[in-house]
Amino acid sequence: MPVIEVADLVKEFRRPKRQEGSFAGLRTLLTREQTVKRAVDGISFQVARGEMVGYLGPNGAGKSTTIKMLTGILVPTSGTVRVAGTVPWRDRARNARQIGVVFGQRSQLWWDLPLRDSLWLTGRLYDVPTARFEEKRRQFTKVLDLGSFLDTPVRQLSLGQRMRGDLAAAMLYDPSILYLDEPTVGLDVVAKERIRAFVGELNRESGTTVVLTTHDLDDVEELCDRIVLIDHGKVAYDGAVAELKTRYAPHRELVVQTDALESVEGAEVVRREEGKVWLRFDPARTPPAALVASVLARHEVTDLSIVEPELESVIHRIYADRG
Amino acid sequence: MKAHLACARMEFRVALTYRTSYLSSFVMMLLQIYLLTVVWSAFYDGRDEVDGVSLSTMTAYATLSTLQYTLVSPWRSSPIDQRVREGKVAVDLLRPIGFPGQMLAGQLGWASAAVPVLLVALPFALLIGAGQAPASTAAAVAYPLALIGALLVNQLLGLLLGMVSFWTLEVSGALMAYRFVAQFFSGALVPLWFMPGPVRAAAEWLPFQATAYTPAALYLGQVEGYGMAAALAVQGAWIVALGALAAFVWSRARHRVMSQGG
Predict the structure, then answer these.
(1) Burial of A224 (C-beta count, 10 Å sphere; 0-12/13-18/19+)
(2) Nearest by Cα to A39 from B259, B218, B57, B189
(3) What is the mean pLDDT of chain B?
(4) Which run of H or E residues covers position A248?
(5) Is B13–A68 a contact, with Cβ atoms under 8 angstroms apart?
(6) B261 occurs within a structural domain
């Protein structure tokens, strides 16, 4: 039973057409001509309860626009969205209670006030009973390590601290669905790791459904089993991460540390460096075990490993192919 | 309601965090009260009354409208245009309460931060002889009602104007013009009773007089008896009409949300 159902979703933005020539500014102001941009162009997908889905695409592909329609901020031009039985933009307030949202680029915390105040407001807005609120705040203060800056005005927080604060505010009322829109953008490795760990734990322990957009594919590899890849407002791929790799990057590489290796049957030498040789092979045609056996039979080998393709390079190839 | 109160309280706290601007607004206000007293005394030029209005009533009017102005001012009409430009509307629309209600609650919370200032300024005004007690018991009762009415009319006007930015993105030019017109026709600078016939007629048909003139005139007994009820009724009618218009405009603006950036 899917918790998020998206069908034929379209969002167009209209702007008055920019005029050129003399008095261009004034004529732009008065013109009735419009340019229409289709940011989202017929997207359909479903997300099951408890799933963690990576929603990927290059800049301007329509990711954030989709998220804004799923959360009820934007009204779609056409198509349907149902999130746990509600239509987000029509029943915005009810939908808001079942979702948590974190925008990496935009904080929901009160800029001039201490983080503590923003958390207090969240408790009030979502009718969290006082005892439950205290319990949640204690829990998040511990898990996200908020203690040292609970009383600091948000404008003085570092980006990593602010993101942790935003995450705490988004999950304070136990929403069953969490949307993360580039949650790790601009963060250092440690801060990224902390956020991933928190989200992963939420999903495991509370069964929170997570939709994640990001440009950091490590986020996806660590958290998501499935990705929906969009480009130019359309779905380019929807399926398992592993499946995507086999489809777009069928080759594996066998790295062998050896003194002399000219060629091996069923594999191609793609690189040689400092006594190491990279052999590229297609596991569907050349079984890895057979390849390893034939290399070991003929050569003196000190070390050997099989390298999986990285999601990063796979996605890169897909974007490049589509131009 | 609890959620709206919480929003109001947040903005109240924000207003208090800007202590320097808070205190300087306080000093400016006292200075303005003093200067207006000097100006109106010079204007009366030794006469006790002009058009049946005594100097003491006039200076009390000037003081009162200055004090009210910290609560009800077209200069802080609405945060909406800025939030639209910066894309912060997206965050407002994630909260589980209506957008216009959130904005109004925040604005009222911000305005209420001026109340302590008023409580300090009032004795000062009385001390320099620029103040007056309410004209009657009825005036004392009607005044707070009229002040709340003024606050609501002013905020609803600001809300409407702010929502225009969902169509135009940029309203700062229109806002400047609005503030000038709103301030003049509110009677905050010159009371309606000194306005020439046609201008006064225009002021009476516009909603702005409900934001400054109505409460001050009620307090000073310039409007009495049946007129008091009528003035409050006019205010009430504006609140209903502007509220309905704001709800309608929002239902249209909802489809225009573009959410800048990201």
Answers:
(1) buried
(2) B259
(3) 87
(4) helix A241-248
(5) no
(6) no
- Tell me the two tokens of residue A264: 């091996």
- The tally of domains found in chain B comes to 1
Q: CB distance B254–A89 less than 8 Å?
A: yes
Q: Does A198 touch chain B (CB under 8 A)?
A: no
pLDDT (mean) for B255-259: 76
Least CB-CB distance to B96: which of A96, A107, A108?
Answer: A96
C-alpha dihedral, B205 to B209 to B214 to B215, nearest 10°: 160
Domains along the sequence of chain A with CATH: 2-246 (3.40.50.300), 250-322 (3.30.70)
Dump pLDDT digits (tens) for B167-180: 887 777 888 888 88
Query: What is the amino acid identity at position A84?
Result: A
- Give chain A positions within 8 Å (CB) of B2: 124, 127
Contact criterion met (CB < 8 Å) for A13 and B258: yes
Specify burial of residue A258 (Cβ count, 10 A radius: 0-12, 13-18, 19+).
middle
ipTM of the shown complex:
0.85
Q: Give the pair of three-digit tokens for residue A136.
A: 């949640």
| Beta-carbon separation of A74 and B259 below 8 A | yes
Using the beta-carbon criterion (under 8 Å), do A117 and B17 form an inter-chain contact?
no
Subunit contact A125:B259, Cβ cutoff 8 A: no
Query: Is residue B175, in this structure, part of any structural domain at all?
Result: yes
| A94 inside 8 A of chain B by CB | yes
Give which of B94, B168, B255 to mutate to test A binding, by max A Cβ within 10 Å: B94
User: Tens digit of pLDDT for each residue in A138-169?
Assistant: 999 999 999 999 999 999 999 999 999 999 99
The parent domain of residue B125 ranges over 2-256
